[in-house]
TrEMBL record:
This is Response regulator. The modification 4-aspartylphosphate is found at D54. PROSITE patterns: RESPONSE_REGULATORY (PS50110). Keywords: Phosphoprotein. The keyword Phosphoprotein applies. The lineage of its organism: Bacteria, Bacillati, Actinomycetota, Actinomycetes, Micromonosporales. Residues 4-118 form the Response regulatory domain. InterPro entries: Bact_response_regulator (IPR050595), CheY-like_superfamily (IPR011006), Sig_transdc_resp-reg_receiver (IPR001789). The keyword ATP-binding does not apply. Pfam families: Response_reg (PF00072).
Length: 118
């Protein structure tokens, strides 16, 4: 069974491209969201295995969203993505419930099994 993913990013073009990329690699994108609030709602509604989460969202940052997702009965694997390198130490990302961080332009070469496996 394919890993289910919710993509949370305010850039429609990025969501479209990454959804095609994830699908081509055998993952199932079950929902997309444009901000943190709708991302949290999409995770509540769809209970995905994983979330690809943008760091910079219009209503809150990705760490705040990850912290909220961590409180779910069955928290998804969270992969944080940004155009820039992470300004936070790995320990802080882990504490927020983030499994890994990836720079967006490196997603095309990423090992999605390693990123999204629980």
């Amino acid at each position: 069974m394919a890993v289910t993913v919710v993509v949370v990013d305010d850039d429609a073009g990025f969501r479209r491209v990454v959804t095609m990329l994830l699908t081509a690699r055998g993952l199932s994108v079950v929902a997309e969201a444009v901000d943190g609030a709708s991302g949290i709602e999409a995770v509540r509604r769809h209970a995905p295995d994983a979330v690809l989460l943008d760091l910079n969202l219009p209503d809150r940052d990705g760490l705040a969203v990850a912290r909220a997702l961590r409180l779910a009965d069955r928290p998804p694997t969270v992969v944080l993505a940004s155009t820039d390198a992470s300004p936070w130490p790995p320990e802080e990302l882990t504490e927020a419930g983030i499994r890994s961080f990836v720079v967006k332009d490196r997603l095309f070469d990423a090992d999605f099994d390693a990123l999204f496996s629980s």
